[in-house]
Amino acid sequence: MNIVRAGFYSTLATGARLLAGLVVIKLVAWLAGPEGVGRLGQFMSLMSLLAVLAGGGISAGIVKYVAEFRHDTQKLSRLLAAALWYALFASCLMGCAALLLSKQLSWWLLGDIRYENLIRVLAVAQLGIALANYILAVINGFMDVRRLAFIQVLGSALSVVMAVGLSRWLHLYGVLLALVVGQLLLLVVGLPAWRRSPYFERSMLRMHFDREMSLKLAAFSVMTLTSALLPPLINIVVRNHLAQQFGWEQVGYWQAVSKVSDAYLLFLTTAINIYYLPKLASTHERASLTAELRDAYRHLLPAVIVLAALVYALRGWVTRILFSADFTAANALYGPQLLGDVIKIASFMLSYLMLAKAMTRLFVISECVFALSYLALVYVFTASFGLIGAMYAFAVNYLFYLAFNVVVARRYLGAL
Length: 416
Fold this sequence. Notes:
- The protein is mostly helical.
- The protein starts with a helix and ends with a helix.
- It has helices spanning about 5-55, 60-70, 75-100, 100-110, 115-125, 125-140, 145-195, 210-245, 250-280, 285-315, 315-320, 335-355, 360-385, 390-415.
- The protein is built from 14 helices and no strands.
- The radius of gyration is 21 Å and the shape is globular.
- The model has no long low-confidence stretch (mean pLDDT about 85).
């Protein structure tokens, strides 16, 4: 499997996920306007938070170690038994916590306790989401990109049908409910697809506590949890700050531009996740690692520049099609956001070296430092430039992050 073939299948999967996400945003924009899109971002941040916590944040760890152990049957069996135990235990803890705090979460995130039952549904769904994450991570670790793409495409198609149906019945509440149930559809599609794979064994569904493997996963999951938990938490704080300073309608404009960026960047971040994480994890020679990183920049950096330029040129059309005429004010925010997107992808390709090589302490510290620096820059730049200052903060913070990752990569490769 090479980057071109992996990119083709990841493009199919990403296109399906992108379409599903855009349908949801369009429904919310139609049902509730800019304010509804702002609140949708809060709920999706909570979903991202709990989806990662559902399995203890070990999906990337499973990918890494499956890629390393797939030719060692004994180690692979021990790893997967420990991973399934770890994931389901963590999901039970997170589900119980979300149930107990459902009212507080509904009020804090959505400003309305009427969404309390929705939070409860999300809490109960944690077990299914954890199992779905486990299955997708195992498939990714075996670099079975075609099967992974099939699961994601079919799951996304079913989630779109559900979102449209529930929106007609329950309106905004129905769309949010469909987001939760859509996560479970990946399990419904993924389990039978995985069982038909040539590498599936019944032992992969057994649970067993293994201290050595659990410690490997725990150390690795610290990095994944840090990178997955900080952005939703920081974005929640940023939204609340922007809402206090400019109102929820302005937050909707900021959220709309951010969602457009997330949508088109999915094509690139998915390729990085599917191909480069297991590839870098299983590569140990300096020359091979250098070649992989150069290959990444040769293919992905031009792609993000072209995509960002297209989005900027068509920003008025994109905003009208994806949202509505009420979002015209968001067009002024695209410039610095898209520049930040290019720098973000450039930095991500290097940061995955820390993730793949389990540089736990350095990775966690860097994630915390740059999350806090982004928050600080938002406060400083919005005070000086208004709402667009949040986009300036995004671009400047990733510029600092890119410089940091260049230093880390050079030192690591130089030490080999």
